[in-house]
Amino acid sequence: MDGTPWTAPRSPTTSPPPRPPTARRAGPTRDPVIPPGKGIPPEVRQAIKDELPFQQYEDPIEICWQKLDGGLFFDLDRENHVIRLNSAYRTAILGGRRGGLNDAPVIKSLPYLMLHQVFEKAHSGSREKDNLQLWQSVLVAAARSELDRVADDD
């Protein structure tokens, strides 16, 4: 034996205990972010608040659905702190469920996490513009895939 105490192997169906909802991870301090606002459910906003400190005196970032030209997945309004998601993809994303202000929390949380830093700057540099284009392309492809699946089900 190597002197290491023996512990029973974990059953494949046993998962580790859940992390307490308000526990912060050890490690580097996270920079304050512009808080999420309308369009993200309160419980998700709270989870973000538990993980990230918020910038004071900044208007929250709102996420809403709106018809966007050119098949874009999202559009940004930096001045008003709004992420607009293309409503053409909404029905497919919701999978037939009824929509509302706080619908599609996973889909809305991801753009918030990817894009919140964009609102902290007046302009995007070349790397940020490239990332925005990358995310746009991948999300449009994913949304169109969802639309195709909905059409196949009809």
Written description of the protein model:
By secondary structure, this protein is of the alpha+beta class. The protein has four helices and three strands, in the order H-E-E-E-H-H-H. A hairpin with a 4-residue loop joins strand 2 (74-77) and strand 3. The chain starts with 41 loop residues before the first helix and ends with a helix. The chain is globular, with a radius of gyration of 20 Å. Strands 1-3-2 form a three-stranded mixed sheet, covered by helices on one side. It has helices spanning 42-51, 90-94, 105-115, 126-153; strands at residues 62-66, 74-77, 82-86. The mean pLDDT is 87.
Output the keywords:
154 residues, alpha+beta, 3-stranded mixed beta sheet, 3 strands, globular
Quick recap:
The chain is of the alpha+beta class and about 150 residues long. It is built from four helices and three strands, in the order αβββααα.
Number of strands: 3
Number of distinct helices: 4
Poorly predicted regions: none
Strand order of the largest sheet: 1-3-2
Kindly state the mean pLDDT as a whole number? 87
Order of helices and strands: HEEEHHH
Shape: globular
For the biggest sheet, the summary is:
3 strands, mixed
Strand content: 5-15%
Q: What is the CA-CA span between the terminal residues?
A: 62 Å
Radius of gyration: 20 Å
User: What class would the helix/strand composition place it in?
Assistant: alpha+beta
Helix content: 25-40%
